[in-house]
Every structure is written in structure tokens, then in C-alpha cells.
Design brief:
This is CHAT domain-containing protein. The chain is of the alpha/beta class and 861 residues long. Among the domains are: 70 residues; 136 residues, no CATH class; 202 residues, Rossmann fold, CATH 3.40.50; 33 residues. 61% of the residues lie in helices and 8% in strands. The protein contains 36 helices and 16 strands. The strands form four sheets. The protein has a six-stranded mixed sheet with strand order 7-6-8-12-15-16, with helices on both faces. A five-stranded mixed sheet has the order 3-2-1-4-5. 43% of the residues are buried. The N terminus and C terminus are likely disordered.
Length: 861
């Protein structure tokens, strides 16, 4: 009987295998002929079974065919997240099984194109660029001109979405060089070019190009609308918009595009100060995206999905609202959708780019809360406003920090370990990709790296879903009391800045109170801040006009309200925007006419300044390493024009003060750093560094080669302290909220909590002197922030240093980001008292025995 059963099972298995390919195609075609929710549910169930049994390449190809049609349906019905996941799985299956060798199935048209567009729709611009470039490469390889042109069109649309209009014009110009462009493609490229010219305020060129259109159509009127809108001619813009609207009846616009059209209409009505009409258009857009939504207010969160058109709707709805409570509710829905979108982003580049809109929204929320506070004096509103400020502070660093903390808590969890390694590998390949794009290497290398990054992105998404289910993410809810208790313990005050588009907000939290200051960012105030920062561009600027420096330093001191907390010993600064580049220690607390720097009332003399990228980092508990050994790198660059002569003195001074392992000259290689950095408590790099430029990212030099920012991101470090004794290590491309993309940030991302780094090009000799003093003080106190302050004061008080060299240019470049570690107990008094006690006891014993020798009769008695 058993033999009959197994024989039947074997025969059925063969039959199933032979018919599986046909069964997959049949299931797909059945769905295609009758697309609806019920047939989708059945298809998804069948797909799950097919995945478990498909083995041959033909079966895998059939499954790719099924998934592409399923993805198309999901996209059409606004199931964007599910559509992306389906297309990603299809692409992975196609590549893994090398199905391009088996069939001429058009993976570009059926998968890569819609996937690239979906990434653009959901704000995942990094994956969008990568995907579109991948299929442009494949199209070039197969000499498929049609796909090359459509790739250029989609790439141009993407860059238009992120306002890189110069790039758009270049892409369009190159696309026009292709032979045999059909009329539809030519018309679309012209339309894209017209709208980008308008966005760049090149109105005449845009109008001229638009007028060359062979016939009046939707795109022509839409472009006229955009041109008039950019000019500020809102009535003319409305007229063109309404003409474009007449074509909607004849057009088969996708649901999302139709909703966006109504949002644009609402934005135009808002500019024309017609709020009721604007609200009607917004309601229409909402109902298109949410067919079951019939209300006139705001939809429930549970009905929303990751679609950035919702953000445009809720942001405008909030702007129109008179009631601040309703406006805040609407903005919160925008933040909610933004979070939904972010769940699908795996690269920090995508996250950084999308921070800009969140920042603008946060500023509006803070404005609303501040205005309400002015009327009610309800201080709970101030902490709420502070939280909006914090939400957009170093969010990527905070996210990475959270992942690292979770891994430390559950070190044996293979899922967490794999996620962490994938994130590091992603940054490694991103670094390689940047290098390749800067060189003249083959496009195939770039494409290969792009494919690897896409594969990593897919793995990270899969892992995230499992990890989130296992460890549900909880929103951190730090209360005002948490901050105040910590500040009380540290004898500190926390000052956080929010550098908005129109306003500079300052939140001041002490152990007993919270306050807020608002400063309108006029052109004059911006100039004052920028002018002060530029005083440190060169050593001669300050010394050539010392009185100008003291005047500006005092102006900034008053502007930033430093006099309001001048009595506090320790000041924790959370800078923002341009304030990231201000050395607060070098501000002047009193008006002075003195030209002697050592006599000037610098803030550093009376207060300790400690910086952090976010107030969350100030609250975080650091995990101190038991190992106190220092790892130092000193390339020196002998026999070059960039020799760091005094770097050798710096190295010797460290050796005298600290247990250290130092790599000098050619031993100070990048490879030695990578191999050893994770094993030491203190990392010290005395070298050259650069903040980068529009092409190159920030970088730091080793003896043999340069390390770029993304390479640092790929490292896993956990030091107590990192000291970057190099130029511009705190400077880089500035992103709102996230800060400067600097070498210092690279170390923070890699795991460093406490850092000392520079804000401008530093002087070799003065740096060596300050570093010697820093380590002498650090060895005594084991507190970096105290050693930082003391080293600067000692530098100013050093009589062997000339007044010219005591300019703040020479000593205030280094800023400390990190924790307030108290100085280790000074047991000197204890040892003195203990020594005196021992001496006294010995003296008493000596006197006693001396008296004993003089009275021998005591023995006989």
C-alpha cells in the first residue's frame, strides 16, 4: 500500500512540474481578463504556491510575467507599497535566474520602467535614479533607441521633481540628439524643457519653445499656466489652467495624476486668495485618492497610504485653516504620510533629500504654537514646539544610533546583525559608486554597482518588515522633566536653535524652566551671521581689524541671546543651519576696546560650551569602553608641499600623556586605520582634510590615499572619543536639519558619540600646542569637554605666544560634540591627609619606643 502511495505521489509530482509553467500563465491571463479585488486575492494566493514550487527557468519566467501584471494593477489602484514589492521581487527573480538569456521578455517595459516611476512617486529618489539608469544602460547595450529615449524622459521628470532643472535641460538636450524621435516623444521632451526653463525664470525661452508646439493641447496650456505662475501673473495662469482643464474629459489620466492636477488648481486658488475654491479642489483630490472618503474635513489616518500627493493636500489645507488646532492636525497628517513613505527608503541620500519639506512644515507648526503661546502663555506649548524642532534634527544619525543600540541590547540576534552589516555594505558600495562616477571608468562598472545597491535595498526592506514585527518601533517620548533632571545633574542649560526660512527660534531649557525666543531672519541678520563666519576664512582677517572682530563677536552674542544664560557654568548648544559654523566660545560677552586677545571677555573664559547634533543625543547614555588606549595617525607628509611639521610634536606630546599606539609617516595608511580603529578607546587623526565641493564629498587624507565620507559611513566604531586634528573636519555640504555632510558626521554615523573637530583650515603650530595642552588636561580629568575648555584658556594665557597668534582664528576652531563627562575625582587632598596621618602615627610610635628605652624598670615590674 505504501509503495502505491509513493508511486502515485511521484507521478503527481512529475505531472505538477510539467504543468506548473502553463498553470502560472493561465492564472496570470485569468487575472488580466478580469481584474478586481477578488481576482487579485486569488492571484496572490496562487502566487504564494507558485513561488514555493517554481524551479526551472521557464517556470521562473512565467512567475515574472505574472508579477509584472500584478504590479501594474496594484500601481493603478494606488497600492504603491505592494506594487513596489511585487516589481522588486520580479526583477530579483529575473536577474537571479539570468532569464534574459532564455527569453526576449521586455524586462524594461514590463518591470524596470514602472518600478522606476513608482520610486519617484514615493520619494525614493536614490532607487529611482539607480533603476532608470539601469534600464538606460540595458537599452544602450541592446541598442534600443525607444527605451533610451523613454529612460531620458523619465530621468528628466525625476530631476524635475527634485528641482534640479539644469540637469533636466542637459538630459533633454542629449535626448534630442537621438535619431528617429517620434512626435509624441518630441512633444513630451519639449514640454519638460519648457517647464524647467520656466522654473529657472527663463520666461522668454520657455514661451518661445511653447509657442513652437504644432497644435494647442493639454501640455501647451499647462506650460502656459506654469510660465504665468512663475511670473506671478496668477489671473493669466488661471485662464491657461482652465483651458488645460477642458482637455481632461478626453484624456485618460491616471488616478494620481488627476489628483495632482486638482491640487495644483487648489494651490492656484490659494494664491488668488480664494480659499473656498481651493478647499473644494482639495476635497476633489482627496476623493480621487480615497474613493470611500465622503467627508469635508480631514480623513482618518487608517485610510492613508504612502503617496506624496497627500502631503501636498494636507500642507495646503493647513495653510488655508484659520483655526491653529485644525492646521496642526493637518500638518500632523502630512508628517504621518511622510513617515509611511520613509518606511520604504533604505538609503540616507533619499532620507536627507526629503528632510527639506519636513523642515518647512516644522517651521509652520512652531509658528502656530508660538503665536498661540503669545496669547495663552501656556508653557506646555513651548515644549510641543521644541519637539517639532527636534523631529528634524539629525534624524538619520538618530535612526542609525537606535539601530546600533538595539543591536547592543540583543547582540545574538542574527536579523539585527545582518541589517547592520547590510547598512554598512550599502554605504561601502555607495562610496565605490561615487568614486566611479567621478572617474572615467566604463558605464558597466557603474551599472554593476547600481545593481548591487538595488539588491541590498531589497534585502533591507525585507529585513525591516521582519524586524519591525519582532521589535515594534516605539516613538521616543522624552519629557521636559527628563531634560531638566539631566541638566540639573550636569549643572547645565540647553539651548537649541531652529534656523528656519523666515525665523530663527531659540529654545532655552534650564533645570526649572523652558523659554523661547523668536527672531525674524531679515537680510541684515543673515548678513551679520555670514559675515562673522567669514572672519575665520583667513588668519589675517581678524588681526587686520581687531576692533571689527570684537564688535561683530559682541553683536552675535547679543543676537543669539547669550546674555540670558550667562550665569550658567555649562551650556549645551544644539546649533542649526548656518549656526553650525559659528564658534560660540569665541563670542565676546561685553563690549571692549582692547586689542589684547588674552584680556578679552571671550565666552570660553566664563562658560563651557558643549555641542550636540540633537537634544536626543544629550539625553542618551553612553557606553564607555574600559580600554583607555589611544590610536593615533600622523602621516606628516614629509618631502611634500603639505608637510605637517608640528604634527610630530603633537605625537610626542600624546605619547608622554597617554597609553598610545601611533602610526607615523607611511604607516599611517588607510588600511591600517580600517583594521585597527575599532579596537581603541580614543582615535586621534593629525592630517589633512577637506570639506569637499559640488563634485567631491568631504574627505580625510591618509599617507597613501584619501578616505571619502561614504567610506566612513561603512565602518563600525565605538570609541569613547575621536579627535580630528585636521582642517575643516566639521565642514561639508549643509542639509537642513541633518547638518553638514562633514568628516565629523561620518565618524558620528560610524558610532562615535564624543568628537573634537575643526570648523576651518587650522594652523599646524597652534593646533599642536592646543592638542598638547588638551591631552595633558584630559589625562588628569578624563573629561573631554573640560580638557577642551582648559586647553583654550591655557593657550590664551601662555605668555610665550604672541598676541597675533592668540587671535580666535588659532584657538577656537575646535568644537566638542558629546557628553558632559565629569572630571575623575581628584584624590590629591586625600593623599596629603593620608600621608600626614601616616607620618604622625610613625612619629608617635617612634616617641613611644624612645620613652620605652629610657624606662627599663618597666620590664622588671
Amino acid at each position: 500500500m505504501k509503495k502505491i502511495f509513493f508511486l502515485s505521489f511521484f507521478i503527481c509530482g512529475i505531472s505538477f512540474s510539467q504543468n506548473l509553467e502553463e498553470g502560472i500563465y493561465t492564472a496570470a491571463e485569468t487575472f488580466i481578463s478580469n481584474k478586481n479585488k477578488a481576482s487579485l486575492k486569488l492571484l496572490t494566493q496562487q502566487e504564494s504556491t507558485f513561488k514555493n514550487h517554481a524551479k526551472t527557468k521557464d517556470e521562473q519566467l512565467a512567475l515574472v510575467f505574472l508579477q509584472c501584471h500584478k504590479g501594474y494593477y496594484l500601481d493603478e489602484h494606488s497600492k504603491l507599497k505592494e506594487a513596489i514589492s511585487t516589481y522588486e521581487d520580479a526583477l530579483k527573480r529575473f536577474n537571479k535566474n539570468e532569464l534574459s538569456k532564455l527569453s526576449d521578455f521586455d524586462i524594461i517595459e514590463n518591470c524596470l520602467k514602472p518600478l522606476g516611476n513608482l520610486y519617484t512617486k514615493t520619494g525614493d529618489y536614490t532607487n529611482a535614479v539607480s533603476t532608470i539608469n539601469q534600464y538606460i544602460f540595458l537599452a544602450e547595450k541592446s541598442k534600443n533607441i525607444t527605451h533610451q529615449i523613454s529612460g531620458a524622459i523619465n530621468l528628466a521628470k525625476l530631476y524635475q521633481t527634485i528641482n534640479k532643472h539644469e540637469t533636466v535641460l542637459k538630459i533633454v538636450a542629449d535626448a534630442f540628439k537621438f535619431p528617429n524621435i517620434n512626435s509624441d516623444q518630441k512633444s513630451l521632451l519639449q514640454s519638460i524643457k519648457t517647464s524647467s526653463l520656466a522654473a529657472l525664470n527663463k520666461y522668454e525661452d520657455a514661451s518661445l519653445l511653447n509657442s513652437t508646439s504644432t497644435n494647442l493641447n493639454f501640455e501647451t496650456h499647462k506650460n502656459n499656466y506654469l510660465i504665468e505662475l512663475q511670473k506671478g501673473n496668477y489671473e493669466n495662469a488661471l485662464s491657461s489652467f482652465q483651458k488645460a482643464k477642458e482637455y481632461l474629459v478626453k484624456m485618460d489620466l491616471a488616478t494620481r495624476d488627476l489628483a495632482k492636477f486638482h491640487v495644483e488648481e487648489a494651490q492656484l486658488f490659494h494664491l488668488l486668495k480664494q480659499p473656498n475654491e481651493a478647499l473644494k479642489s482639495l476635497q476633489q483630490a482627496s476623493k480621487i485618492l480615497l474613493p470611500n472618503f465622503q467627508g469635508n474635513g480631514l480623513p482618518n489616518k487608517k485610510y492613508l497610504y504612502p503617496e506624496n500627493t497627500f502631503i501636498d493636500i494636507f500642507d495646503l489645507y493647513a495653510t488655508i485653516q484659520i483655526d491653529p488646532k485644525k492646521a496642526l492636525e493637518s500638518y500632523d497628517l502630512s508628517f504621518f504620510v511622510s513617515d509611511l513613505l520613509q518606511e520604504n527608503w533604505t538609503s540616507q541620500e533619499a532620507k536627507i533629500f526629503n528632510e527639506t519639506s519636513n523642515r518647512i512644515r516644522s517651521e509652520h507648526c512652531i509658528d502656530l504654537l508660538f503665536n498661540t503661546y503669545e496669547q495663552t502663555k501656556n508653557k506646555s506649548l513651548l515644549f510641543e514646539a521644541f519637539q517639532y524642532s527636534e523631529n528634524n534634527k539629525a534624524s538619520i544619525l538618530k535612526d542609525m544610533n537606535q539601530k546600533k543600540w538595539r543591536l547592543q541590547k540583543f547582540p545574538n540576534d542574527s536579523l539585527l546583525s545582518k541589517e547592520f552589516q547590510l547598512l554598512k555594505t550599502q554605504e561601502y558600495y555607495t562610496g565605490l559608486l561615487i568614486k566611479e562616477q567621478l572617474s572615467t571608468n566604463k558605464a558597466s562598472t557603474v551599472n554593476n554597482l547600481s545593481e548591487k545597491l538595488s539588491a541590498i535595498s531589497l534585502q533591507l526592506k525585507t529585513l525591516k518588515a521582519v524586524i519591525t514585527k519582532k521589535y515594534p518601533e516605539k516613538n521616543r517620548t522624552d519629557s521636559l522633566v527628563h531634560f531638566q533632571n539631566k541638566l540639573n545633574k550636569d549643572e547645565a542649560i540647553l539651548v537649541e536653535y531652529f534656523f528656519g526660512k523666515n525665523t530663527l527660534y531659540q529654545f532655552i531649557i534650564s533645570e526649572k524652566d523652558i523659554a523661547i525666543e523668536r527672531l525674524q531672519l531679515t537680510e541684515e541678520i543673515r548678513k551679520n551671521i555670514i559675515s562673522f563666519i567669514h572672519l575665520f576664512d583667513d588668519a589675517s582677517i581678524i588681526n587686520n581689524d581687531i576692533n571689527n572682530y570684537t564688535r561683530q563677536a559682541y553683536t552675535i552674542f547679543k543676537l543669539l541671546n547669550f546674555d540670558k544664560f550667562s550665569l550658567h557654568k555649562n551650556v549645551v548648544i544644539i546649533p542649526d543651519g548656518l549656526l553650525n559654523f559659528i564658534p560660540f566660545e569665541a563670542l565676546i560677552s561685553l563690549k571692549t576696546t582692547s586689542t589684547s586677545f588674552s584680556k578679552m571677555p571671550f565666552v570660553i573664559k566664563s562658560q563651557n560650551i558643549i555641542y550636540n547634533s540633537s537634544a536626543t543625543f544629550y539625553l542618551a547614555k553612553s557606553q564607555e569602553r574600559k580600554n583607555k588606549e589611544l590610536l593615533g595617525f600622523f602621516p606628516v607628509f614629509e618631502n611634500t608641499n603639505h608637510k605637517l611639521t608640528y604634527s610630530i610634536n603633537e605625537a610626542h606630546a600624546i605619547e608622554n600623556e597617554m597609553p598610545a599606539r601611533l602610526f607615523m609617516n607611511n604607516k599611517a595608511s588607510k588600511q591600517n586605520f580600517i583594521e585597527n580603529a575599532s579596537n581603541y578607546s580614543i582615535l586621534h587623526l593629525s592630517t589633512h582634510a577637506s570639506s569637499g565641493d559640488f563634485v567631491n564629498p568631504a574627505n580625510i587624507s591618509f599617507y597613501n590615499e584619501t578616505m571619502f565620507l561614504n567610506e566612513l559611513y561603512s565602518l563600525d566604531l565605538n570609541p569613547n572619543l575621536v579627535v580630528l586634528s585636521a582642517c575643516e573636519t566639521g565642514i561639508g555640504k549643509l542639509y537642513k536639519g541633518e547638518g553638514a555632510m562633514s568628516i565629523a558626521r561620518g565618524f558620528q554615523y560610524a558610532g562615535a558619540e564624543n568628537l573634537l573637530f575643526s570648523l576651518w583650515q587650522i594652523n599646524d603650530l597652534s593646533t599642536s600646542q592646543i592638542m598638547q595642552s588638551f591631552y595633558e588636561n584630559y589625562n588628569k580629568s578624563e573629561s573631554a569637554y573640560l580638557a577642551n575648555q582648559q586647553s583654550k584658556i591655557e593657550y590664551l594665557e601662555n605668555e610665550t605666544i604672541s598676541n597675533v597668534k592668540k587671535s580666535p582664528y588659532y584657538w577656537s576652531a575646535f568644537v566638542y560634540y558629546g557628553t558632559l563627562e565629569p572630571a575623575k575625582p581628584d584624590n590629591t587632598i586625600f593623599y596629603i591627609i593620608f600621608s600626614i596621618a601616616i607620618i604622625m602615627i610613625m612619629l608617635l610610635l617612634f616617641l613611644k619606643f624612645k620613652n620605652y628605652d629610657r624606662n627599663p624598670s618597666r620590664i622588671s615590674s
